[in-house]
Amino acid sequence: MTTTAIPAPEQADLEAFLGRFVGDLGSALAGVNIVVGDRLGLYAAVADHQPATASDVATATGTDERYVTEWLRGQAAGGYLEYDPSGDTYSLTPAQAACLADAHSPTYVPGAFQIAASIYKDSERLEAVFRSGAGIGWHERHHDLFEGTERFFRPGYVANLVSGWIPALDGVEAKLLSGAAVADIGCGHGASTLIMAEAYPRSTFVGFDYHEESIKRARQRAVDAGVADRVRFEVAGAADYPGTGYDLVAVFDALHDMGDPAGAARHVLSSLDSDGTWLIVEPNAGDSVPDNLNPVGRIFYSASTMVCVPVSRAQEVGACLGAQAGPACIESVVREGGFTRFRTATSTPFNLVYEARP
Description:
single chain; alpha/beta; Arc Repressor Mutant, subunit A; Rossmann fold; 2 domains; 7-stranded mixed sheet; two-stranded antiparallel ribbon; globular
């Protein structure tokens, strides 16, 4: 408890801050509703029956109409659905549908709220590591984090990986088209691996992740996608995965989570062909704190506090780069690992895409 006298705020400043608080609290409470609505298929039901009544949505999803009514009203209040009082019906605009009802859309966002839900479920453990300075391993987190991460990041990979990120690398696309050996480190459920495999049928791919349950899921995804003959998934860490002579090693949104990213960089270098490429995709960030004090930076810093830093701290070294490490920090890690060439190949509002060469 503070013992320092706090000066009285200006009324306008107080009202402005409370306005921000109302928005944030509404978002926090709405997030749980988004997760539940997504799991029950409520957004898809609105899209299929619009203009839809609460009865339409409840019947289509096998849910209780009174619960659905309250849910619909809350979604309309937050601007996630449109409401027509003349018929007491709800609908989705094309933008809302692309973000909430179409799982194949590059802007599909419910997975982000599933990530947030997992953090709330782990909040007591997170409070404890704040006090102790310990970490929480990825494998120790609530399973919603694993699924939410795949569901949130996959649409961005679908939209950008083959169309923009790989073509931005020097000579890599030509190798993949003709037949290359690729390793995807920290692959999770294998979304990025499978996107590349489907786009480049002459190449072979192996995804590595230390989390056994994720690898089991990835193996099944490869079978379902019909690419298991040239894609495999193995349990291994970033500093000890097997194989050499890879034409491309990729790390998607995972380098900053590693306990020893410089050690991982050294291992990547040892596993690459002499003319190989390391593709590193990281959250978009500037090199200084002021560069990142914006709405996107708020998301990344907040997620990093609760996920990335605890995961890194649970590993050897515990470098804790954080999700807003920035290009200078990433370059320093890469060069410490022995790479001599490094550049930012391209970017999106949410990602920076780096190319490292021996």
